[in-house]
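Q: What structure does this chain adopt?
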Amino acid sequence: MQPTAAAKRAARLASPILVLWFAAGCSRETNSLSGPGRTTSSLADAATTPEPRMPLVRVVRTPRTPVSGSRTPTASPTQSPTVAPTATPPPPTIPASSPTASPSPTPTRAPSIVLWLRGIPWQWDFSGPPQVVVSSTAPYPGQNTVVLQVGQTYELHIYDDAFQEEHPHYFSGIAALGIPGAPVSSGAPVRILVFTPTVPGDFSFLCTNVCGSNEQHGAMHGFVHVIP
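A:
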């Protein structure tokens, strides 16, 4: 294919431009290597002599002072992980202490009251402190009746003051009051019987040993009247 006339004309115009651009580039390279007044040896020295290094200067940066009124950025707070609340166990149930029953006061026992019962022919005679009531119940002779109180303790001293030893007396006792029977003879030691009446009422006793005629022996009756 033959080039057109226009292409030939463009080629003729571009050839001188390319020659000039190449020549200019070679001239710049030669000048940079040699330069005015430099020789080939100096060029070699320059190639072998190392270029002096500039000393390193440490630059200290001064912290910037925040301008008044400027807002200093603050780090966003780190959000702590959400912890599920732990259920608090209920406090232990303490059983209510039952009220301590105060001990029942021990009733103070009243001191015993001493009574005397004398057997003589043919009667019984009571005697005792002034608070004890003693009397006579007819038709039997002597101070043969005494008044006692429920709950009071008594000491009954029984003795025989008879002049005839051949007919001693015998106290029958009162079973309802817890008083046992006991022989009562002249010159014998005093018999002491302790008892506490628990029931009110009228109680009797007698001599169970024949100490004389029927009339004499039958007269030896005594009586105890217990009040609440």
